[in-house]
Write the structure tokens for this entry.
Amino acid sequence: MGSITWGPEVAKVYDKTYRAMFEPPVLGPAVDLPAELARGGPAVEFAAGTGRVALALSARGIAVHGLELSPHMAQQMLAKPGADAVPVTGQPAVSALGPRASMTARRGAGANILGAWAG
């Protein structure tokens, strides 16, 4: 099974193209449920992209680790305020995460798909 990684052309315009996803009426609910499911523990976001959800969770005081295969998307996230608090791993290796997370968040088909981290 192959994977899709976004190149520099997409990464540069991603936030602008999908700016509506960053608006509080959209982002708030997209972060409320993962924040609740984390129960104060650490969280992992798969396909962290430019950091829309990971940075918002971190701003709420939740320790977040992002997994992102595209170095170009990760560079966009790491250039944003607050990104120093969100480590990003390029290869989704669970062993690199350290302690188990309370919950994980994965975006797919435009919606967040949530699941408890097996522990």
User: Anything to note?
Assistant: Residues 92-98, 107-119 have pLDDT under 50 and may be disordered. Residues 26 and 107 are 14 Å apart (CA to CA). Helices lie at 8-17, 24-38, 52-59, 71-78.
